[in-house]
Amino acid sequence: MNTLSRRLGRGEGSVVGGWVGLAIDPQLVRALSRGREMILVSGTNGKTTTAEMLRRAWGDDTGGNRTGSNMTQGHVAALVNDPSPRMVLEVDEGYLGEIVAQAQPRAVVLLNLSRDQLDRAAEVRHLALKWREALRDVRGVVANANDPLVVYAAETARDVAWVRVPVEWRKDAASCPHCTRPLSYGPSGDWGCECGFARPASFVAELIDGSLSLGELTVPLELKVPGEVNRVNAVMALSALHTLGVDPENAARRLRDLDSVAGRYQTYPWRGRSVRLILAKNPAGFGEALRALEPGDEVWMAINSQIADGRDPSWLYDTDVSALAGRVVHCAGERRLDLATRLTYEGIEVRVMDQPSSTPVGEGRVSLVANYTAFREWRQMLERP
Amino acid sequence: MKVAVVFPELLGTYGDGGNALALAWRARARQISVSVQEVHLGDEFPDADLYLLGGGEDGPQRLATERLREVGFADRVREGARLLAVCAGLQVVGRHFAVEGDDTFPGLDLVPAVTVRGTPRAVGDIAVRVGSRLLVGFENHGGRTSLGEGLSPLGEVVSGTGNDGRVDGYRAPGIWGTYLHGPVLAQNPWWCDEILSELVGEPLAPLESVADRLYAARVREVTGRESAS
């Protein structure tokens, strides 16, 4: 079946089998989860990378939905195809309630919530409310205490393990999700509202000076995947494992060799150059990706607006592109003119790449930042030059 | 010239902050001096020549409306400040609008526009004929807006929904209302220049930029025909 799906060119092959399974039994996830230990990961950004970190750090015999199919069909397919006793599943934000109810997970890791694909997904505050209802009295939740929408979503759960990690993006949590009054933010990630809603006082872990801090214990993070955003992902993963009794120092050591995740951060030789592929799909993710760019790299950006990307690329204007100041940015993808216009209005010099064949000849490494389907197209192209 | 982006943390969900960026860039390219100020909730409300209101979710839209009422926003516009109101912004300055289900909420009553909840939600590319030219953009809203007596629509819907499937937005002295995101002024350089020209009170020198290519491509994409310019 999955071979069929691949042959039909319909993605990486996990979804078709899942659909067939679901047609047979809608309670399949419950049945397939029985007797296995499971961790779920959800949030707007960092799901795939954090799930991979969890798989590595949890130890051998850990499986999951590695292809990134993160809705019900993808979960079923992973559970059918992968017999591992431990499973880490990344979960699309809209499907969290369903799988939490069925899978009885040992831990549910909640990374962040921000605007993403507003043309097809719910507005983000509505999503937070859905989570809040789905997580009521659920145990094992490990959640980002610095993200007010995540806290709003998770505070109904039982004995939440709060983790303090930096959140750069605040534009979706300017007003209180309880009372809509303005939220105020302090310098160290603390936040609160007049109505009493505030960052939880207790926490199990935090990111301090690039290390994971667990009360008395400080665990240095040595990562090959770049940027603050991946230290945040690592802290979330290691904190979740810590709540399950996994030794954090051993777990951190298993993350050292991780240098790419499903093509993210992978470097390919291409037409005499070396191209590093970076995925960024929404304003919060883009801001993080641009901040993590190596100073010497040439920057290419590719933006599409397929259904999986969101049909409306106006989010480009919600994205902080100040990290690109002083660079020349080569604009590619279906919406290269939207991107070029957006950057021009910010005073950033652009070159429009009308075809991949018009990619610039030059020296040095390229960082190619692309959104979902553009990333997929470029990855295919770079893997088969 | 002073441009104020009003409550971007509440009315800025769909990239509408880019309207100020487009205005400022196109003004400066003609040596017109322009300052752009973001007005946040707690700030003292500033004077401006042009206020920009964007799109937002229900709760924040309600909060923005309450604050705008407190600071006497409607009077500022009646007294001569100009206003570009997009999506939720368009609804906010009307008589009343629907939030969170079918509850109605009083607007600022600057224009006789009334917004009720409509199904299905209008999501997708939209093109609107304004005079002899097209405005292109993206709409994403659950409102259906009707215009009271004496209030003209901005233009006629060519594809998409706008206010009601027939017309989009409204036009009153010093006020432009539209459902178009994009952001609308970034994607439609001719309209950005028209608004700018009205603000400075004289015609502007032509200006070529990559936005012209974007506009032509979007017009082709959304309407299947060449740009009507």
What's a quick, concise take on this entry?
Chain A has helices at about 1-5, 15-25, 30-35, 45-60, 70-80, 95-105, 125-135, 150-155, 225-245, 250-255, 285-290, 335-345, 370-385, and strands at about 35-40, 60-65, 85-90, 105-110, 140-145, 160-165, 185, 190, 205-210, 210-215, 215-220, 265-270, 275-280, 300, 330, 350, 365-370. Chain A is of the alpha/beta class. Chain A folds into two domains: about 1-255, Mur-like, catalytic domain (UDP-N-acetylmuramoyl-L-alanine:D-glutamate ligase); about 265-385, Protein-Tyrosine Phosphatase, Chain A (Alpha-Beta Complex), CATH 3.90.190.20.
Notable traits:
heterodimer; A: 385 residues; alpha/beta; UDP-N-acetylmuramoyl-L-alanine:D-glutamate ligase; Protein-Tyrosine Phosphatase, Chain A; 2 domains; 9-stranded mixed sheet; 6-stranded mixed sheet; 17 strands; B: 229 residues; Rossmann fold; 4-stranded antiparallel sheet; 7 helices; 12 strands; 28% helix
Largest sheet of chain A: 9 strands, mixed
Distance N to C terminus of chain B: 28 Å
How would you write the strand order of the largest sheet of chain B? 2-1-3-4-12-11
What is the CATH topology of chain B? Answer: Rossmann fold
Number of strands of chain B: 12
- Strand order in the sheet with the most strands of chain A: 2-3-1-4-5-6-9-10-11
Helix content of chain A: 25-40%
Q: Just name the CATH architecture of the largest domain in chain A.
A: 3-Layer(aba) Sandwich
Q: State the helical fraction of chain B.
A: 25-40%
Strand content of chain A: 15-25%
Gross CATH architecture of chain B: 3-Layer(aba) Sandwich
Our count of domains of chain B comes out at 1
The first-level CATH class of chain B is given as Alpha Beta
CATH topology (level 3) name of the largest domain in chain A:
UDP-N-acetylmuramoyl-L-alanine:D-glutamate ligase
Biggest interface pair, counts:
A-B, 34 and 36 residues
Strand content of chain B: 25-35%
Spell out the helices and strands of chain B N to C. Answer: EHEEHHEHEEEEEEEEHHH
The total strand number of chain A stands at 17
